[in-house]
Amino acid sequence: MRETYNLEFKQTMTNSFLKTVVAFANYDGGKIIFGLDDKGKIIGIEEPTKFAIDLENKINDSISPQVDYEIEIDQNNLVILNVDSGDDKPYFYKSKSYKRNDSATVEVYPQELKRLILEGKNISYDQVPSINKDYKFSYLEEKLQEKLGIDKLNNDILKTLELIDKNNELTNAGDIFADNNSRNMIDIVRFGDDINTILSRFTYKDMSILKAFDLALDKYKEYYNIEKIDGMYRRKIELIPEAAFREAIANALVHRDWMIQSFIQISLTDEGIRIISPGSLTQGISEEEYINGNLSLMRNPIIANIFFRLDIIEAFGTGIRRIKKAYEDEVVKPEFKVYQNSIEVFLPVIEKSLDLSIDENKVIKALINKKLSSSQLGEITGFKKNKLIDLLNSLIEKSVVIREGKNRGTKYKLR
Questions:
Q1: In 10 A of CB 302, how many CB atoms?
Q2: Of the candidates 241, 192, 221, which has an alpha carbon nearest to the alpha carbon of residue 352?
Q3: From its phi and psi, is residue 114 left (phi > 0), alpha (psi between -120 and 50) or beta?
Q4: Residue 236: its pLDDT value, please?
Q5: How far is CA 242 from CA 217, 250, 350, in A?
Q6: What is the pLDDT of residue 317?
Q7: Which residues lie closer than 8 Å to 309 by C-beta, 6 or more apart?
Q8: Are β-strands 272-278 and 335-338 bridged in parallel, bridged antiparallel, or unpaired?
Q9: What is the dihedral of CA 82, 85, 87, 91, to 10 degrees?
């Protein structure tokens, strides 16, 4: 057993545990076990009942607002403090607020404190009034006319969309959709053979989020949608599935943390497209739930609702699954990484010109995320030895499969 994001060990009581209580209450809750050393070895607590009373008094006297918690004593004289995620965020100890960074407790930075304050008030950032007083919605109006058939964008529609509030004041969502704002949208860099070679750069800022989305899609089409002449005909080839790119960039714009004044960074390379979005996961959703596409919690519900109405996103919470589905029949797969302050999506280039057979694709699917011998592949695919060796040799020639080892130690894997 080791310390984690929501588990901490203490041999005894020192005031530092109060910082961790605040961190747990500010986020997803957690547990502090008193009577264990840092490696989880049982030391025990003398007079655990008195210890538990002292613990309770320290928490009640030192942390504001009051946090919700329970104290247990087990048979090994361990005192277990369970802290619930609070409803009155942010919580403070000595006028400072804290969060967990892996297994450490650190003070929250000002931007994060603002986010906690909004969460405590049960409002999202895109609902908050904007300081922008001079705005137009020409780009949004054009899109609404095209998709929803409205005649003209008026205040009643803007209120329905929550882009202005009941006092006719612009919201942050309204500012983000406005033609003229001060928002950093998207920074696109097209690289050459390596990251030291920049072929071109396109920076989109101070514009409607919808225009930034369309401009990014144009750059995708310019570099990853190609036409191939096949006899007398032209054939369109998507080096990266357009559906995957649309979902990835829409997700980045809808779910990013707009309180962070950074660009969404898009890197274009021969290997694929890498999209890095400011802000980590919304509170209440785990990395596993995000990557599996099981759950979606709206950081920016107003922005998400308008993207949904405009048919840019199909439905809430389906983006990751749709990206994966776009690569369903491909050898290469998209990658998703979650960091403390950002989320990264990589969309690899697919090779459409290999003209793989049904049997070759069956071998490829058997090798996804595996390294197998020919006998193991035979058991999975049902192919006879000679046919399987022919298929493997063909895939090696096409640079799809790699052969490793010799004789009985020979194994195959995807390149």
A1: 21
A2: 241
A3: alpha
A4: 72
A5: 9, 12, 12
A6: 60
A7: 147, 148, 161
A8: unpaired
A9: 80
Q: Label residues 13-22 b or e (16+ Cβ within 10 Å = b).
A: beeebbbbbb
Q: What is the residue type of 66?
A: Q
For residue 23 the two structure tokens come to 């961190």
Count of CB atoms situated within 10 Å of the CB of 254: 26
Under 8 Å between Cβ of 181 and 206:
yes
- Cβ–Cβ < 8 Å for 130, 170: yes
SS3 173: helix
Given this model, what pLDDT does residue 232 score? 59
DSSP at 250:
H
At 364-406, the pLDDT tens digits run 888 877 888 888 999 999 998 899 999 999 888 877 888 998 8
Write out pLDDT tens, residues 192-221: 888 889 999 999 999 999 999 999 999 999
State which residues of the chain have pLDDT below 50: none
CA 183 to CA 256: how far, in whole Å?
Answer: 13
> Which pLDDT does position 315 carry in this prediction?
62
User: Which two structure tokens, joined as six digits, stand for 190?
Assistant: 């097209």
At 162 the three-state DSSP class reads coil
